[in-house]
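Why show two proteins at once? Because comparison is the fastest way to build intuition. When a single record is shown, students tend to memorize it. When two are placed side by side, the eye starts asking what differs. So, the first record is below.
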Amino acid sequence: ALDSSIMPSKGQSRSKGGEEAKVPLQAVVLADSFTHRFRPITLERPKTLLPLANVPMIEYTLEFLASNGVEEVFIFCCAHADQLTQYIENSAWSSTASFVVHTIVSTNCISAGEALRLIDHKHVIRSDFILISGDTVANMDLRMALEAHRERRKTERLAIMTCCFKTITRRQREEHLGESNLVVAMDPATGRVLHYDEQASPSLPDANASPKRANAKLSPLSLDASLFSEHPSVRLRTDLQDCHVDICAPEVLMLFTDNFDYQHLRRDFVCGTLNERELGNNIYAHELGAREYATRITNLRTYDAVSRDVIGRWVYPVCPDVNCLPRGDPTAFNHRWPQTYLEKGADVDSTAAIGAGCVVGAGCVVGPGARVSRSVLGRGVVVGAGASITGSHVMRNARIGVNASVTSALVCEGAVIHESATVGKGAIIAYDVVVGAGHVVADYSRISLAPQPENDDDVDSDDELEIGSFGGGGGARLSDPSRQMARSDSKGSFGGGGGFDEDDDEGPGGVYLNDHERALLQRAKEGTAGYATIERWAPEGVGVGGAGHAWAPRWGEEEWRFSIAPVPPGSSDAAYARDDALDSEDDDAHVRSGAKAAATGDGSDSETDSGGEDDALESHFRKEVAETFLRCVKHGYEQANAVVELQGLKMAENRTFADIARYVLMTILGLSLPAPRDVTKENSKLYPAKAPDNTPALLKSIRERLKQWAPLLSRFLKSEDDQVEMLLTLEDYCAEDEVFKGMHGALLVPSFAKILHLLYDMDVLSEVSVLAWAEEKGLAGEEDKRFLKLAQPFVDWLKEADSESDGSGSDSSEASSSDEEE
């Protein structure tokens, strides 16, 4: 339903004098993703109201639009529309000056295409508008893209859309964000998009995968030959992230109305428009600047990644200590290094440890000896004595029991993890679920008070389930109007989940419970239910005394790709290597000849040595980097020229600057050691005949070379993740593992900590990266802590320096914030 107050009146677009009136900048926000990546959470709450770093996602989107001059917003609501409209009505957005928010509700739309057709029928869009999803977090300056779009439209009326993209590495896009493989062809002179190809990334071998998924590989890229005759040059981009922020002409809505087969915005509309070139409609690209950010949260992997980006201040000024979100619900976060945010009113025991990358909301109680790192704790969370929370998101009013452990998981509001229970990586604990004492929740489990629908894998949207009903098990229609999530008293903040009124017939999450089940759930939360709970909830999923249904995994889905849990290192590269191997069976020319020769050696076609193939491919790349860099050293190239040489190699090998930098550093270190066995005879003259006689002499030699090339390394290693990856590579080099065998790296082991200190002093490594590496290695097995133990004095020194800076007062924090703002 659409309130009549937002319908355009006759003559609305013209003033009394006949002159065209100013049309406000409008935006359409799609508040339903029309997917089911967030189940079972989104069976009880709309995705756009899920907290990200303790702020509902929709708040980030609306703040982004308001900061870019948008004056009128239409939010299209589908799944759980009542909750979303109530949130907007009770929030500060309903009374913000010069920013009008309307909601359009439809409970029978099953795609973005249907939503846009309905908006077109309402005739509320009067000019160019912003099209965005309600799960987008951004700090980009949209005004530049808007101006370019408007200028283009003055001379080219069929320039109907401008899509925003950001340069990103494949590893960041697919491992960090969990997004698909993307290839975009464009005219480099005009920025016009010529081809858009998005495919599911290649999979890893998995005995449990469906036959279709097990054999999944990328389809060949096909381009219309006429593109090359119509355009002087065509550039293929594989280094772009689609930000899903679009500037659209009103004709976009008309095209959806004219083409009822358009359902998906990218797969149908964008690809369809590009393929129907005879109609003359064109789409252009706008690339974000290096310091700009815009990402849509499409799955749990992206949810975790964007949360960490907000915490890590990559989205500045959108970060907790700015205390601007949610609007109308003032927060009081203080920032302390490294990237930890404590809100006023949080109670942290003096013996508890709050590590880097944490957000702790007001009202949280963290007990004695508890350890929290890289995690977000919502308001009112209780963490028992000796509990451990790592890499997790715990929503408000949840309780983590004494000595319980939660690792890389999502725990929703009102959930209770009892004493000594363990929640494995990638697990989702939905609203008000109770995990019994001592129970171990398996990795990647999904547990909800709602039983799993039989068609969980078949339907495309959470809304399809909301309209329907559960089968058996006391399920209720999720579209029941009485389903209301509890809210906090704070205007504009989404809360509740901790308890429920005794007069209600439904559980706190909206799942129907009879009186007996409600009483049983309350006893389970209190820890007094014991074996009584097994009559309603199977103990295999939640343990004795627990409450909830364990959902079966989705058939054929790769949990590592879309889960909150960290992606296994190298998974994406391994998947692409496998894809190359599958392609080589059909077309030997698909794999670069040099890489294939290095990988196959004698031409053997055995499938049992895939690990050896991967090492051979990586060894080939490492050697290419070393030879290119040594050529620069030999001829005395300036760094600018060296960058050009290495950039050419990067493009030829389709790798990242960070990949180049890792092997450049190992080559620099190796120049103080005897020549490796695979170096060319010509380049071997650059190496000493033997290693320096003692550690000081070795460090002096390394220091001189690092001083020369440190600026290049700093330029290539932009992010914390890149630097951590470099440290892991340095470990492999010193251990002479994998691609570094026979390179004499073991001679550097006694100097490992000193080398780290040198890299830190020369700004190749940051304090945050070293501490993040140390924290990651601290979670590894004893056999993997060898180099951490060697570097421990340096790590301790960094921590002491950090604690001293924390104790110096708020001046340094304010100065840091000021610097970042500049």
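Second record. Ask yourself what differs from the first in the token line.
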Amino acid sequence: PRKIPVGVTMRQVVALAFALCVVQSQGFYLPGVAPRAFKDGEAVQMKVQTLVSTETPLQFDYYQLPFCEPRKIHDLPENLGEALAGEKAHTSAFKSRVKVNEYCKVLCRKNYTPQQMEEFQDFAILEYRVNMRLDNLPVAEMINFAFEDKPDKTMQIYNLGYALGGKLAPEEKAAAGSKAESDTYVLNNHLRFKIKYHPVDTDGVITEGSPDGSYIVGFEVMPFSIKHSYYGKWNASAVPYHPLTSCAGTPPNGRFERHQPQVIDPTEGGQVIFSYDIEWEKSMVKWASRWDVYLQMTDDNIHWFSIVNSFVILVFLTGIVALIMLRILRKDFARYNEMALTEEELVEANREMREETGWKLVYGDVFRPPPLARILAVFVGSGFQLFVMTILTLCFATLGFLSPANRGALLSSVLVFFVLMGLPAGYMSARFSKLLKEENQFKTAFLTGTLFPGVCFAIFFAVNIIAWSKRSSTAVPFGTLMVLAVLWFGVSLPLVFFGAFLGYKKDALTVPVQTNPIPRQIPPQLWYLQLPVSVLMGGLLSFGAVFVEMFFIISSIWQHRFYYMFGFLALVFAILIITCAEITIVLCYLHLCAEEYRWWWRSFLTSGAVAGYMWFYGAYHYFTRAHPAAHYDALASSVYFGYLTIFCYAVWVLTGFIGFFSTFQFIVKIYGSIKID
């Protein structure tokens, strides 16, 4: 047979592979974030979303307030993450065309009852903001941010959404014609949108009238409160170009005549005319960089301070563990294994062996199965499931796959990874269940697949019932709950059983010492070795390593900002893992030296105690940040504390697994390194 020249073939293969890579690299975009170019004059649709506030965790759908509506409202499709977060989007009555500036366009005229006006006022009191988006960009107000130590250095940052209304200052009330003695609030009924565009770059040349169109790279808003007026009778057929005397110029030029603000009158109701401006502005920002302004960090120095603070705690604990391993245990091993180099040291070792105390005495009880051993094995499996899920999520987020531009991606990925990690969860719980001699394999596997997610789902469902009763958009639709149930029982639970099947097929985990038939009596413990004190002390050190980053996470969620500092978060998580492991090992060694061999649950609870500190810190954050009216609101409190409890429950199981597993490896190591007669 004829031979093909190998060199030519390889060159062809390499050239073909390179060409394919180039083609793929030019056409690859993350799902949902591919650029779209708009032609000049093409209609663009603004979408409305939710009403959110920094005074309360409750969010509501845009159309739950009587705003202007289009002829037919279309609900935009949403992924699982958006549905769980309540980020519903709808079509709106706002209309625009690419590069066409328009001013004082009328959206609609509405006559409100006193009850409707009171509803607007309630939302204005709680400082609710309206969220919208255009071409997947959220609307935002541009504000100037100044550093405290450098007041002359300012930077522009975005404040997502726009304020629904605001409170009039006392000197402005008289000018507005308000005679009420109480606070007077106004409604922001006129919006000035600034849409920034970047022409499509063709062959490195940017032209104003590019035939390929333009990318939308910015979406800003400036709200106004204007009591509009008009001549004669209202002509509904002239909307959106109905002339208003409060707008200057013919046609309107973006300026206003002398006017009063649109006061919210909850006693008599009244008429409100909603209007808006559209301004298009060319920008040098490219499409790939359009999200940069939303993700700017104004506090990176504090994050580095958090990392340094956590690292100091980590070094302190590492030093203690190193002291134990390199000095105390090393000498113990040498004495037990008769490795002394001199006769004097051998005599001293024999004397100490006759009077031995501490962790060496409890070798016959250290692996005695604890009470509720099956539940411990179940939590170990669930903790391993959460651990792998967190690692995968942080890796994908750090690499940029979970960008805020891909809405709902973060929450969706967390759920998907958790469901798929049912396999290692079942495997890990089966391995420890077999070690602890639990015979009912089906019950262990079933509890592994249902105990942790079952508690989370019960809390989640209870919060949803309250949210449904209050018509909050925080409530998850029934269809989404069914999807969660299918993922749970149709995917996660079978994977748990399959993992448990693989785990039970393996031989039981081996331990270096045998367990005595009769338990050893535990001597009285000093006060600082009691379980509550140990748990509080262990949790406090771990919390000290992460509380700064937790403050930023809660603040970002509370202030409805994008949290995108996953690099910092990954570092803090790594420090948390090492801190939990080391503090649990140190405390476990102290307990073993005091002849307290019941380390199984103690190690899990000591490491998991950081979740309790997180819960109380979250509660403190709520009562210091929330509006006083929200403190006693059943829905607001249940939503916040319900989700906080789910988060802290997951942290408890995750960190408990880290402490337990590291302690187990430590104990196997030290008892496997001594000679037992």
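One difference worth noting in the second protein: The radius of gyration is 32 Å.
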